[in-house]
């Protein structure tokens, strides 16, 4: 019994840590990781309720991860599961109960739910024991399902999940949903801010900003690991960077519709006004209350700066918009190289990649081959070569994010 007490102590100590995470995607990933750790599950997945379906949000698998080169991330397919009694996760969601299966390949014929072996065949991984727990709010609202796969004993042999494992994960899920509800509220507030920008600029949609934010986190992780940044610092930064990247163009709320929605080229005067969205957005975060405010300001101000100094807004006072360093024509001097803060360099790459890859009313989406060729051509001019290398290393994960946050048809 001591080991189960230790597990509960671990979960209690995790409560405050989970409550520090503000971004929903980062929180879901962490919830899955910690849940697997406390019951020694080799793999697992987490689903979020959307309408009458469950959408897989994160999947982890230690066995398959070990088969990858160092630094590579496990790639999983985005799919949905109906909330009904035909699948294990769907049954858990539909009934609001825990489902504990010792061997999914030995389910009795009378079982209402079945295991789909096609996923095992595709992945080359055999699922055996499964524990699915619904994630419910304190009012009983279904938020999703957390599913543990293949409990491991001390000899790394797959065993069934115990009744104690059920209790531990149910307790963990109850506590985690409090943090999840708070993160959902934070995401909703951010998306409302973005909706204000979308009213002015149709390109600033929820899927677009979620993609840019997700890409930025993946790029940062690759860059940080190569630089030897500690895992604790990486995790803390991921949370703040993801939210900050969502707000990269929030300053567009100040730009006239006549300019934002103009179909043709800007005049010099219009372009100067358009460029002001960077420092106007940054100005929203001048009364800094947290590290998030600091990163959000850096992103808003610097995501249009170019590595070779040809970007904007350059060296300016963000309160007045006036230049503090000017060239011989009286224009602000652009920031160059590492004068551009890291997070601006990262979001610049994420934003351009998404813009080139996406359909717009004035252009079709480019092919991936053409997009990647264009991105490479801008190394050392528009983009920091080292950060661009991190982008290419993260490309598999970036494709998954693109699929996860696809534009609505």
**What's the domain count?**
2
How would you state the average pLDDT, rounded?
Answer: 89
CATH class of the largest domain: Mainly Alpha
Assign the CATH architecture of the largest domain: Orthogonal Bundle
**Biggest sheet features:** 7 strands, antiparallel
Rg (C-alpha, Å): 23 Å
SSE string: HHEEHEHEHEEEHHHHHHHHHHH
What does this structure look like?
- The longest helix is centred in the middle third of the chain and has 38 residues, at 163-200.
- Strand 6 and strand 7 (158-159) form a beta hairpin.
- The N and C termini lie far apart (53 Å).
- This protein has two domains: 2-183, Beta-Lactamase (2-Layer Sandwich), CATH 3.30.450.40; 201-404, Hypothetical protein af1432 (Orthogonal Bundle), CATH 1.10.3210.
- Strands 1, 2, 3, 4, 5, 6 and 7 form a seven-stranded antiparallel β-sheet that branches.
- It has helices at residues 2-19, 24-39, 62-66, 88-95, 118-123, 163-200, 206-226, 231-246, 257-260, 268-275, 277-283, 291-302, 342-357, 368-377, 385-393, 395-404; strands at residues 41-50, 53-61, 80-82, 99-101, 130-136, 142-152, 158-159.
- The chain has 409 residues and is an alpha+beta fold.
